[in-house]
UniProtKB/TrEMBL annotation, chain A:
Protein's UniProt keywords contain Transmembrane: yes
Family indicated by similarity: Belongs to the CPA3 antiporters (TC 2.A.63) subunit B family.
Entry's localization field: Cell membrane
Source organism per UniProt: Alkalihalobacillus alcalophilus ATCC 27647 = CGMCC 1.3604
Bilayer-crossing regions: 7-28, 34-55, 76-95, 115-137
Main location: membrane
Protein name as it appears in the record: Cation:proton antiporter
Topology in membrane: Multi-pass membrane protein
GO cellular component, one term: plasma membrane
From TrEMBL, chain B:
UniProt subcellular location: Cell membrane; Membrane
GO molecular function, one term: antiporter activity
All copies of domain NADH:quinone oxidoreductase/Mrp antiporter transmembrane, residue ranges: 132-429
UniProt KW Flavoprotein keyword: no
Major subcellular site: membrane
BP-aspect Gene Ontology terms: proton transmembrane transport; sodium ion transport
A Pfam family that the UniProt record links to this protein: MbhD
GO cellular component, one term: plasma membrane
Family statement: Belongs to the CPA3 antiporters (TC 2.A.63) subunit A family.
Protein name as it appears in the record: Cation:proton antiporter
Length: 141, 803
């Protein structure tokens, strides 16, 4: 599509990784710092958008060989199920908790929150929604 | 434990039989379905006859089954003289009509299951109306009679006139029905009960209530529309499109008397008031006159009978109106005088049912055997159809009020009642009340005239076989049985009126005027010969003038008024109906412009007006608060950027320019979030702005060229005004709301709890996924739905084009 955009494509190859890693950072640090599932997902989606602008939508599709609608459903399911699990422990729907663990690699006294599971759901839904909207419309061209 | 008693089962048995009629029709095609139906009214008639001794002793029977007890709605059946009289009419004439219909409707050509289902529906509904003590139950059955009547009128639904007639009767009677419901509700508001007997017991409470007049008017509207009183009578002539058994049953003997029943039933509640007396008497007498005048102009046998029914109903109604004065006087000579009116009303009610039923059946026979009901074509049937001729003669003579038939007696009593009313003066009856006997007398002349016209035009003269499609001969015996029974009743009641007086008229009169129970005035004695009194001379005058008018028929039939058969009030109805529909269409067209911008103007204007009004009314506008934060320089700069962006969007000539304007607004908003220390929002806003701009650019090539709006200046002005006022209102609201804060915000809680309880330092995120995760969950669902919607819209387009 853009055979001569060498600079753009080269920069994209580099930048996309940085953006994705940054988006993971934003996603994971959301509990204590600005960020979270929503922003993380949007940032990841922007990385894919950049690839699709520099290369082609087909390229992105090859990179993520799954149907966005499945991801969307999976994300919603994760969010709902994570909300339902507390019910079996006699708590309310969407009840969240957290605790501190000593984990390898991540270090001692690391906080793990159940809210993260819910956030994974948010992350998956948002990324799938944005990409599916843009690709559906983009493919129409 | 409440159980349905035999009386309850009897009341709803026609409805139950109606359910199985289609099965009988389907599996017993060889036998006319009517035979199966016939059993029920006969059994019911016998069942109700058995109440006669009890009721004539002055006892009443009451059975109650709760229906909606919490609302005071009980299925109460209540048998007293009046209910029993009507129940006997309904079942007795019902049986005769079913018998008649067996021979009238062909087994092969007609959809009999429909007919009998509707007829039984009607019979059950009518029994329910007259036997119910609970007004709400009465109303339910009342509407069921309207429905069944409309179904029966449109029985031959392929004919346009049938449908017109059915619609008309439905609209008018349902209008009255709703009004009656309003009256019922008002009555129950006054008395706190729906039971008629309990309301009667509280009649003095009702009379002293402010709602007395509205309740009375609403109920009377219901009664007048149902009983075809002037000017609501117009539906009845058009209801003649129904099969003749239906006309005989519904539109002469039973349904049209439901209004009479209601008036009679509620007389103990409302009677004694001058308004009730005057309204009913005047409407009745006007109906009497109008009906008899109009009947003369009709050329169709059933048309004459329809207007004659209207006229006779008016007669009964006016008698009930006059009779209600009995409640005003508790004793004395006057009671006796007005009592005559009540007795005459009840007696004529019975008489009318007998002779009008038989006349309709005779007319049906003539129609059935000759193929026409037009009196201009008919003639000379006397020798060809001798039995029908005799039956019609009896019926018409009774209707015209000739001795020795029962119509004569009730007409004499009618005159007596009217003369009494004027003579002894009540409610200023002596002044223009003098008109009453005169109007009644004139109406009687015309009654005589149309009876004579109907009789002589049909049966005398020359017989013209060419006028008829069929070879004319006497009807089969089956068709003749029912009118024969009714006609013999006409004669029997004529010669032995006291057969009825003790057994049924007296209890019925007591129901209408309960204060008379056991009083010495109540001694109904009807006899043929009163001596030479004013009434007799009035009757002689009626016969004399009627005969003269009939002999002069050649003269007045040339008058143009004779040519116009349709009632002039039809024009009002038709005009109102088409006016409603064209007016409604015009009104809708005036504001439903199929223009999105127009609707937005409505919505925003309403919002501005409503918010503005409320803000002024509650006096909450407050623009000068104590606590504005200091405004920094960079905030001013950002605001200037935003204003510039907004103006760019508004005046942009190309789409790209508008897009840039919008993006600048979005980025400026993100900066505001930064300034106001909302990093999450700022991040989200930035990324969303980028994504949506990309999206817009993607769609860019698909969009049509940016259309230069060629609106008129006035439209632009309106848009400008609406937009400015919305902006002003929202600004005012926002500032005023800021200054009218009633409670402390919840911030404190979240600040404290987000780390302690949820373990997160990012308060925004903790709120999103923990404290208020439920919202987030469904926002995700919203996003998903939006994505699937876009996918479906774009991918589904191909299939749509393929169609």
């Amino acid at each position: 599509m853009h055979p001569n955009d060498v600079i753009l494509q080269t920069v994209t190859k580099l930048l996309a990784f940085i953006i994705v890693i940054f988006s993971f950072y934003v996603f994971l640090s959301g509990h204590h710092n600005p960020g979270g599932g929503f922003i993380g997902a949007l940032t990841t989606a922007c990385a894919f958008l950049l690839i699709s602008v520099a290369f082609d939508i087909e390229t992105v599709k090859k990179m993520i060989p799954v149907d966005f609608k499945t991801i969307m459903a999976a994300g919603l399911l994760i969010a709902v199920i994570s909300g339902m699990i507390p019910i079996f422990f006699g708590e309310n729907f969407l009840w969240q908790t957290f605790d501190y663990f000593d984990l390898p690699l991540l270090g001692d006294n690391t906080e793990l929150a159940t809210a993260l599971v819910f956030d994974v759901g948010v992350y998956l839904v948002v990324i799938a929604v944005v990409l599916s909207i843009i690709f559906t419309i983009g493919e129409e061209q | 434990m409440y159980v349905f008693t035999a009386l309850h089962w009897a009341t709803i048995s026609p409805l139950l039989l109606a359910i199985i009629i289609p099965f009988i029709y389907k599996y017993a095609r060889q036998i006319h379905t009517g035979w199966f139906v016939l059993v029920l009214p006969v059994v019911l008639f016998v069942y109700f006859i058995r109440f006669l001794p009890t009721v004539s002793n002055g006892e009443v029977i009451e059975q109650s089954v709760p229906w909606v007890p919490s609302l005071g709605i009980h299925f109460n059946v209540y048998v007293d003289g009046l209910s029993l009289l009507f129940a006997l009419l309904i079942t007795g004439i019902g049986a005769l009509v079913v018998l008649y219909s067996i021979f009238y409707l062909s087994k092969k050509k007609e959809q009999l299951h429909n007919f009998y289902v509707y007829l039984l529906m009607f019979m059950g509904a009518m029994l329910g109306v007259v036997l119910s003590d609970n007004l709400i139950v009465l109303y339910a059955f009342w509407e069921l009679t309207s429905l069944a009547s409309a179904l029966l009128i449109s029985y031959w639904y392929t004919r346009e006139k049938s449908r017109y007639g059915a619609q008309k009767s439905m609209l008018i009677t349902v209008l009255g029905g709703f009004s009656m419901l309003a009256g019922i509700v008002l009555l129950s508001m006054i008395t706190n009960t729906f039971s008629i007997r309990e309301i009667i017991a509280q009649a003095d409470v009702v009379a002293s209530s402010d709602l007395f007049i509205p309740a009375m008017l609403f109920i009377l509207l219901g009664a007048f529309t149902k009983s075809a009183q002037f000017p609501f009578h117009i539906w009845l002539p058009d209801a003649m499109e129904a099969p003749t058994p239906v006309s005989a049953y519904l539109h002469s003997a039973t349904m049209v008397k439901a209004g009479i029943y209601l008036v009679a039933r509620l007389t103990p509640v409302f009677g004694g008031a001058a308004e009730w007396f005057w309204i009913i008497s005047i409407f009745g007498i006007v109906t009497l006159l109008w009906g008899s005048l109009s009947a003369v102009r009709q050329k169709d046998l059933k048309g004459i009978l329809a207007f004659s029914t209207i006229s006779q109903l008016g007669l009964i109604m006016s008698l009930l109106g006059l009779g209600s004065a009995t409640l005003y006087f508790s004793e004395g000579q006057n009671v006796e005088l007005y009592l005559t009116a009540v007795v005459a009303a009840v007696f004529h009610l019975i008489n009318h049912a007998t002779f009008k039923g038989s006349l309709f059946m005779s007319a049906g026979i003539i129609d059935h055997e000759t193929g026409t009901r037009d009196i201009r074509k008919l003639g000379g049937l006397m020798t060809i159809m001798p039995i029908t001729f005799t039956l019609s003669l009896i019926g018409l003579a009774s209707m015209a009020g000739l001795p020795p038939f029962n119509g004569f007696l009730s007409k004499e009593m009618f005159f007596t009642a009217l003369l009494n009313a004027t003579e002894y003066g009540i409610f200023n009856m002596e002044t223009f009340g003098m008109l009453f006997p005169i109007i009644a007398w004139v109406a009687s002349i015309f009654t005589f005239l149309y009876c004579a016209v109907m009789f002589f035009q049909t049966f005398t003269g020359k017989f013209e076989p060419s006028n008829f499609k069929k070879t004319v001969h006497e009807a089969p015996i089956g068709l003749l049985i029912s009118p024969l029974v009714l006609a013999s009743l006409v004669i029997i009641f004529g010669f032995f009126p006291n057969l009825l007086s003790k057994s049924i008229i007296e209890p019925a009169v007591v129901s209408i005027a309960p204060s008379l129970a056991g009083s010495e005035y109540l001694d109904v004695d009807i006899y043929m010969w009163h001596g030479f009194n004013a009434e007799l001379f009035m009757t002689i005058g009626v016969i004399l003038f009627g005969t003269i008018l009939f002999l002069l028929m050649n003269k007045w039939t040339k008058l143009s008024i004779y040519k116009h058969e349709r009632d002039p009030f039809n024009r009002v109805y038709d005009g109102a109906l088409s006016g409603l529909s064209t007016g409604g269409k015009k009104l809708t067209d005036a504001y439903m412009k199929d223009n999105f911008r127009q609707y937005l103007i409505y919505i925003y204007s309403f919002m501005v007006l409503f918010l503005g009004y409320m803000m002024i009314r509650l006096d909450v506008i407050d623009l000068f608060p104590e606590s504005y934060a200091p405004i920094a320089f960079h905030e001013v700069t950002l605001v200037v950027v935003m204003i510039a962006g907004a103006i760019t969007v508004a005046i942009a000539k190309t789409r790209l320019k508008a897009l840039i304007g919008i993006s600048s607004l979005g980025f400026a908003t993100a900066f505001f979030f930064v300034l106001f220390r909302a990093p999450d929002l700022a991040l989200t806003q930035l990324v969303i702005e980028i994504a949506s701009t990309v999206l817009f650019l993607l769609c860019f090539y698909h969009l049509p060229l940016f259309k230069e709006t060629v609106d008129e200046k006035s439209a632009k002005l309106i848009n400008g005004i609406v937009a400015t006022s919305v902006g002003t209102i929202v600004t005012l609201l926002a500032i005023s709301a800021h200054n009218n804060r009633l409670f402390e915000p919840l911030t404190e809680f979240f600040v404290n709890a987000s780390y302690d309880e949820a373990g997160g330092k990012n308060m925004v995120n903790v709120i999103l996924v923990d404290f208020r995760g439920f919202d987030t969950l469904f926002e995700l669902a919203v996003l998903g739905i939006a994505a699937i919607g876009i996918y479906a819209m774009i991918k589904g387009k191909v299939e749509k084009e393929g169609l």
